Amino acid sequence: MTRILSIANQKGGVGKTTTAVNLATAMAAAKRKVLLVDLDPQGNAGTGVGHQKRAQNKTIYDVFRRGVPLVSAIHPTAIPGLSVVPSTESLAGAEIELVSVLEREQVLKRALQENGFDYVFIDCPPALGLLTLNALVASDGVLVPLQCEYYALEGLSQLLRTIGIVQQNLNTRLQLEGVVLTMVDHRNRLSVQVEKDVRAHLKDKVFQTVIPRNVRVSEAPSFGKPAMIYDFRCAGAQAYIRLASEVIRKEEKV
Amino acid sequence: MTRILSIANQKGGVGKTTTAVNLATAMAAAKRKVLLVDLDPQGNAGTGVGHQKRAQNKTIYDVFRRGVPLVSAIHPTAIPGLSVVPSTESLAGAEIELVSVLEREQVLKRALQENGFDYVFIDCPPALGLLTLNALVASDGVLVPLQCEYYALEGLSQLLRTIGIVQQNLNTRLQLEGVVLTMVDHRNRLSVQVEKDVRAHLKDKVFQTVIPRNVRVSEAPSFGKPAMIYDFRCAGAQAYIRLASEVIRKEEKV
Ligand SMILES: Nc1ncnc2c1ncn2[C@@H]1O[C@H](COP(=O)(O)OP(=O)(O)OP(=O)(O)O)[C@@H](O)[C@H]1O
Ligand SMILES: Nc1ncnc2c1ncn2[C@@H]1O[C@H](COP(=O)(O)OP(=O)(O)OP(=O)(O)O)[C@@H](O)[C@H]1O
Ligand SMILES: [Mg+2]
Ligand SMILES: [Mg+2]
Fold first, then answer.
1. CB count, 10 Å around CB of A8?
2. What region, left, alpha or beta, does residue A143 occupy, with left being phi > 0 and alpha being psi -120 to 50 degrees?
3. CB atoms near residue A254 (< 10 Å)
4. How far is the CA of A15 from the centre of ligand 1 (A)?
5. Spatial CB neighbours of A6, under 8 Å, sequence gap ≥ 6
6. I need a labelling partner for A192 at 20 to 30 A (CA). Which of A33, B97, B163, B190 fits?
7. The ligand 2 atom nearest the CA atom of B124
8. C-alpha–C-alpha distance, residues B23 and B36, integer Å
9. d(Cα A127, Cα B40) in Å, to the nearest integer?
10. What is the DSSP letter of A231?
11. CB distance A92–B129 less than 8 Å?
12. What are B45-91's pLDDT values in tens digits?
C-alpha cells in the first residue's frame, strides 16, 4: 500500500523542499521504495536530489497537461531507492491552464494511482492554489514544515483550515501527519517562544524531532546532494534520519 | 510624480515583506508620502506595519474584485507618512477568479492611477502568477530581495526573464531597480560565495547596501512594528535606512 505525503505550507522559505528531499532520502536509506514529486515550478526538489534538467526529460507538467502517464516522467536519481518526477518553469502556467479542466483538483490523484512505491513525497509551492490543492487531494497525509518565526506562525491557522476543508469536501482520508519545526536555534529567544506556543497549541500533532539550523544543510543543494549524502554526520542530516523513524513509528501504530 | 516599486521574487522566504515594510518606513522617515500595498494573501506586510485585520476594513481584494476605488481601501498606520492597503486570505482565490476578466493583468495598474503618493511599494506573493504580474505591469521599477543561498540563486534567472517579458509586452517603463542581498552572514562561506557570484554577474544592478541577518529584524513583526521603529539602532534597521538613501540617490541621478 503506497503512502502519499504532501509537504505543504503557503509561507515561503520554511524548509518544504529541504524536508521533502531529506525525508525522502532517509526513507530510501531505510529500504523503502520512494518517489519524490516536485510540484513547484521553481524545481528546487529536483536540484536537491541532483536531477539534471534536460529538454527531452518528461516532467510533472507533461503529466498534468499532456496526459502523459506518470511512469514516463519518473527518473532515477544517484540515491539508491529514490526516484524523482521533476518539475519545470512552465508549471507556473498550470494554475491558469487547469481552470477550465473538469475535476481540476483530481488530476494528480488520478496520475498517482497504481504507482508501485512504498512512499510518495510531494514538494508543494508556497501557495494555497490549484497545485497544492491537487497534492492535498492526492495525499494520505500532509506534513507541515514550520519555521519558528512570527510571520510563519501567522499563516499556520489558514493552512490548517484549508486542510480541514479538503478533508471534508475532497479527500476524507487526508490526515495531518504532523508539524515539523525547522531551522530551530535554541539560542534565539523568538525561536524558543514559537516552539513553546506551537507545542502547547497543537500538542502531539508536532513531531518530537526538530530540525536545527545547520549551514551544511544549506550547502548541500549546491552540490546536487541531500544533506544526508553531502554530510551524513551533520546535525541536520541526523535530525532528518530521526524524523524518518518518527514517521515510520507513527504509521506502525495506526 | 508617483514612483511605484514592486518587491518581487518567486522564491519564498527571501525577505520580500521585510524589505517592503522597512524600506517603506525608511522612505516615510525621509519625509516621502508612502503607500504600502500588500498583494500577498498571507497578509504579512499589513501585520508588519501593525495593521489590525477588521471585517469592515476594505482590502486590495475589494479593489481587484469588487471595483471599489483604491482610496477606500487605504488605511493609516501608526507610522507618520505611511499608509497601507491590506490584503486578505480571499486574495488566494483571485488568481483563478481573474482568469476570465478582460485585461486581467492591468487591474492594479488602473486602480493605482492618480493616487497622490510619492512612493507606492507593492509586496508580492512568492509566485510568478497573475498577482505578481499585476504588480509588474503597474510598476516603474522592481526591487528583488535575494537571500544568499543556492536555491534562491537558482530562481533568479527565471525572474529576470519574466521581468524582461513584461518590459517588452506589457509595460515598457518597467526597470530593474536593483537586487538587494538579504540575511547576509559574512561568517558563512556559502553566503560570501553567492554574493561574489551575483555581483560579478549583475554588476551595478546589485545595491551596495546589504541587509545583514539580524534577529531584531525577525522579532519586530511580533510587536506589529517595522524594525526601524522596534529597534532603530539595530544593524538591520540601519541597513534599510542606507538602502532607502541609495534608492533616492539612484533616482536623483536619472
Ligand atoms: N535546517 C536548515 N538549516 C539551514 N538552512 C536551511 C535549513 N533548512 C532549509 N534551509 C535553507 O533555507 C532556505 C529555505 O529552505 P527551502 O528552500 O527548503 O524552503 P521552501 O519552503 O521549500 O521554500 P519555497 O517556499 O521557496 O518553496 C534554503 O536556502 C535552504 O537551503
Ligand atoms: N535581515 C533579516 N534578519 C533576520 N531575519 C530576517 C531578516 N529578513 C527577514 N527575516 C525573517 O525571515 C523570514 C522570511 O522573511 P519574509 O517573510 O520577509 O520573506 P518573504 O520573501 O516575504 O516570504 P514569503 O515568500 O513567504 O512572502 C521572516 O520570518 C523574517 O522575519
Ligand atoms: Mg521549496
Ligand atoms: Mg512575504
1. 27
2. beta
3. 5
4. 4
5. A121, A122, A124, A132, A135, A136, A138, A139, A141, A142, A143
6. B190
7. 27
8. 10
9. 10
10. -
11. yes
12. 999 999 999 989 999 999 999 999 999 999 999 999 999 999 999 99
